[in-house]
Structures are given as structure tokens and as C-alpha cells.
Design brief:
The structure is a homodimer.
Chain A: E1 4-9, E2 16-22, E3 25-29, E4 31-33, H1 46-51, E5 57-59, H2 61-66, H3 70-75, H4 79-83, E6 89-91, H5 95-100, E7 103-107, E8 112-115, E9 122-125, H6 127-137, E10 141-143, H7 155-182, E11 192-197, H8 203-216, E12 220-223, H9 232-242, E13 252-254, H10 260-268, E14 273-275, H11 278-284, E15 287-290, E16 293-296, H12 316-320, H13 323-331, H14 335-361, H15 365-373
Parallel strand pairs in A: 4-14, 5-6, 6-10, 10-11, 11-12, 12-13, 13-14
Antiparallel strand pairs in A: 1-2, 2-3, 7-8, 8-9, 15-16
Chain lengths: 376, 376
Amino acid sequence: MSNFKIVATSDTTRARAGVLQTAHGEVETPVFMPVGTLGTVKSLSPEELIGCGTQMVLGNTYHLYLRPGCDVIRRFAGLHNFMHWDRPILTDSGGFQIFSLAKLGKVTDEGASFQSHIDGSSHLLTPEKSVEIQICLGSNIIMCLDDCIKYPASREHAKEALELTTRWAKRCKNALKEGIGSLDLTVSKPPFLFGIVQGGMFKDLRKRSAENLSEITFSGYAIGGLSVGEPKEIMFEIADFTLPILPDNKPKYIMGTGTPEDLVELVALGADMFDCVIPTRNARNGQMFTKKGTINICNARFKYDIKPIEPGCTCYTCQNYSRAYLRHLYMSKELLAYRLNTIHNIYFYMKLMEHMRTAICRNKFDEFRKAFYEGK
Amino acid sequence: MSNFKIVATSDTTRARAGVLQTAHGEVETPVFMPVGTLGTVKSLSPEELIGCGTQMVLGNTYHLYLRPGCDVIRRFAGLHNFMHWDRPILTDSGGFQIFSLAKLGKVTDEGASFQSHIDGSSHLLTPEKSVEIQICLGSNIIMCLDDCIKYPASREHAKEALELTTRWAKRCKNALKEGIGSLDLTVSKPPFLFGIVQGGMFKDLRKRSAENLSEITFSGYAIGGLSVGEPKEIMFEIADFTLPILPDNKPKYIMGTGTPEDLVELVALGADMFDCVIPTRNARNGQMFTKKGTINICNARFKYDIKPIEPGCTCYTCQNYSRAYLRHLYMSKELLAYRLNTIHNIYFYMKLMEHMRTAICRNKFDEFRKAFYEGK
């Protein structure tokens, strides 16, 4: 029995609406996951996330492994209890942060050695270790460790990285099988494991990676190595090429992307799942999303503005606070500023996903997309 | 008709329970007001304040005058709308911050000139100006501008300051009368004006100040110039001396104090109102109040601690989060840490006040006090 069911498709695009079953409830796709790096989506309470319509959050294995560490989270039987969140959690493998944030040591077949960005301590992340940590975190969806390359990368480098990613993916699948044996299945359900397609910006390599992973078979497939500095048109080209060659009966996840426009286009291309720090990070920088584009809440023109960020928006922030107040909080560096801004941006993203899903279910995705670009 | 009614008194102490009527509802005394310096009690939403049992907040006239300024708050017809808070607000006169935070210029009979701590701009705060700003803020209770002296101060200095405070108090009362004329009474109700007793640590001067202010007559009386660095026993001695010589049919307010122990002792001495940054500031420093004393959430012994800050506490934080999680958030400098800590501390203070009031109403204040010191 599959954990993913497609409930509607768009006639004119590859957009699709689905339902993903997890041990912590159903997730309606397409879905956007706010990033809860350290067991908290920065500045928000779980109740606020739910109030914004959040179905699932992403946790960062690298960060949680370093702080507070698995020994702490094990006492809570996982991240859900620890952070007071009872909806689904997806965790990444830790690979991306090792390659982008830590001081990377050697990458060998065994795994990736790195030094913590916090205290410089040395660690080795292997595929087995990554799965073990993610099982300890109690995630509903766990990701295979992959070899993330920078942009631009040579064909040779991209090829080696994808081959290593494939070998690691096999080991992750085996590690999960063995890890399930150690789980007390009366309290924990085994997570779903997703493979990650690599291959840089080379279509034939992406194809090979997709085929390799499909052969191993996973519960879902992610496209990694996008939004790593490449021009937008290349990102869309690779996504457009790769999404349809992934198994259609499984969820397809574009990692680490993107702007509202990116999400609309990638949903049109057939993607089901997304995560990104843009809504939360931008909020903390005063960049607020509206249907007409972003506004910067610091702008002097908002000093006396009694209107909400977006008139008509039904988020908690827009229902109760003015631009002038939010500007005042932000200029005064008040803690409440970051929260109120984040609530609006997360709500904006969640509504966007909800509207896309509704449009797909009504087979009106084109109309939706047209209205979206008209700022309606 | 009076706006303050005493509903119960303690037989064995001077503790009393009252009800203060304001245009934004009733306040049950003794009451503690969290400090909302810049139109926000740092890190909390108004809903969270209410969830903690907050009846009234304090706003700082000095801070709000500088940021966002009266021109902004006027557009919102006052601070209540601006900050989305519909319960009573008390504002201070601005004097204390001018004397402690700004670069103070000359203090003359006219007023106090100062330079902003933000941009160095020059301002003159007169009694009339302070009342005008507080009317603009739409406060329910406004305070007379007073001349706040440091500890220790010479008798001569304390005497001059109290005499100036008396002259300013008269002018504040006149300014309020004139200010009321400018109010649209269909939308705004005139605030209550409180006088502030000064006189340093000299009882005869405190007596003279109390008599002077009582003669002018105010809706309430505050004791200023305490908790300014003097030894605790002197603070209690002056409060003990001054509280009973203030009119018993009016609320008595000790400004800028204190710890939970201070509040218990000052209530026993007959004080009705308090404000202090201790619960909020300490929370942001990881210092959490419990019935057995304060704990520092950073402490390594909490690393694996699945218990709440205070077992049995019914605040949102204790109901949903462990010491280990709060320690993790705090060590990681996560924004949620400050909020969850603040919720607990404010709730602790509000419950303390509520328990004191209940004890007074049942004429069991002594029993309450005994249990309090036993950490029950």
C-alpha cells in the first residue's frame, strides 16, 4: 500500500494534488514546509504555525545533531515531543549543511568528515549515521545522505558526486531496514526514506541519477543541488527535465526552494513538496510578501500607515496590527517584530499552496497562475 | 464618585484588596503591571499577556515620545489601538528615564532639558508637556512629572527636589484640566492623574511631600525614588513610613519595584500597585522564578531535564515545554526562548498577585505569607 495518493491533476500543466500519509497525520500536497532548523521555526510557537496552516515542518539533522544532540532528544522519544509539535516532520540528511556551513574535511566513500561550525569539534557523517540520527529524531520522512556539489561544477565532479550519492542511497536504505529493527514499533512508526537526485546541471547525469534511485526504490524522490547559485532559467530547465522522469506515484520534492514565483512554476512542472528559509528569513529582515510583491517594513512611507501589511489578509498579524506599528517594532528591534512578520510570511506561503491545490482540484491551475501574476 | 474601592483588608497587616475603575475596565488590586516600554511587553503578544492574567501594562512616556512619537500614535487615537491592547494602560511621566537613561541637561523650574539616548536630539520636558504626551498616548492613568534624585542624596538636594516635584505636580493637575478640554469625550475618557511622593530617604521630607500632594488631591499616589540603589531595609523603612500617611481611599503605587519578596512585603505595608522590569528582563537573561527561588535555565543540570520549569505550574510554557528544551533554545539564542521564559515569569508574578488578593479577601494574608516563604 502506498503512502501517497494523487487526488487531482491539471490538464494543462503537470501540476498535481495529492495526499501523503504519515504516522502524524495526512499532508495535502503540494506542500511547503517551513524550516525549523534547531527544533523551532524561528520566533514562532507550534500553535502559531498551525494557525498559519502549516502541515509539516523541516528539521535540520546537522544542527540538531550538534545541538542539543541525539542523547537529549532520545529522552523525549524524538523531536515531536521535544519541540511540542504533533504534526509531521521531515528531516534533511545533514549533508547540505556539512557542505555549506561546517568546515568540510575529506569526503570518502565511507562518509563526509567535518568540523562543527560551533566549536570546531570533528565528526564523521556516514549514510548509516545520518539515518541513525534521523531515526532518533523520530522524523516522519528522512532523507538519504547525498554529496552536494557547488555551482558551477565540472561534469566529472558532478558525475562522481552522483555516483557517490547512489552508493550512499543504497546504504541509507539498508541502514533504515536495520534501524527499523531497533525501533519499538508500539511507540514509533518507521519513517519514509526519500532518495535525492543529483547530477549538477547536466541532464544526462540527472537522468542517470533518477534511474539509479528509482531502481533502488524509495518512498519519495527529491531533487537536490538546485537553487545553489545557478541562473533561475537553468534551475527551471533541470527541474523541468528531472521531475517527469521520477516515478509519478511517489512524492517529488524540490529541496531548498524558493520564492512564491518559483513555487508556482515548480508546481506547474509537477513538484509536490518544498522547503525554504525565504519566508522566515525575509520576515526577520523586514521583507514582507504581498500579492503585489514584497515590501520592506522599514520604509519611511509606512511611518503613519494604519493599514495592515496586506489589506484583506486574514493572518493574525494583518488582523491586528498596522504597518506603522510593525515598522515601529522593527526599527526598535523589538522581539515581537520578528514574530509578527514571520506569521504573515508563513501564512502567505501556506495560502499560496492552498490556493494552488484548490486550483488543481478544480482543474483551474492556469487561471490561478494568471491571477497570481496579476497580483490578485 | 471615586474610581477606587477597597473590598477587603487584612486584620494583621495593612494589606488591602481593591478595585480600580478605568475607561478600559476594572483592575483588581494589588496589581502588578508588566512593563511595555515601547508599546510592547518585550517578546509577548497582547493575547499572551492576557493568558498570563495581566490586567494593566505600563508604557514609558520617554521612550514612546522618542519612538514612534506622538504624531504616529495620534493617528491611532492612542496607544491601545496602536499596540492592540484593550485593557488599561498606565504611563509614567518620562522623568525617570530622563534622569537615568538620557543625557540630562538643565533642570529648572520650567522643566528638564535632555538629549535623546537614541540620536542626541535636544528636548525639554515640562510638566505640561508630559501630561500632553500622556493624554496623546490615551493612557488610563497618567503620572505627574517628578524630579527623581539618585541615592545617596543630601538632605538639601532631596528637599529641593521634593519642592520642585510639588510645584510640577500642581502644574500637571492644571495641565490635565486644560487637556481634558481638548479631548473628544465621546471617544476618549479623561485619564486619572497620580502624584508622586519624593523626599529621598528622609522621613520628614517624605511626610512633607505626601502632605503637599494630598492637599492638591490626586486620583492616586505613588512613591517614587525607591529601589534606586538604597539598601533594602531603607527601602522598606521609607515605604513603611510613607504608605500609611497617604490617603487610604486612593490607590497607592510603589514605582519600579520589585522582587516577589518585595511585593509580598510592600503589599503587607499597604501598597496597591507595582511595576518592574524584573520578571521580563530576568526571563530574557534565563533567570526563571519558581516557588523555591530562581533557577538559571542555562544550567548544565537541565540538559536532559524533561520536567517543566516549575512542576505544577499551569502557564503555557510549563504546560508544553521542558527545561531541556528551554535550555536548548536559550543556549542556541533562539527567539522563542525569550518568549517562553517571559510567559512563565509574568505568569508567576500574576499568580503571586492573585494569591495575595485572595488571601486578603479571606483575611488569611499571614498564612499566605508564611506559605510563600516556605516555598509553597
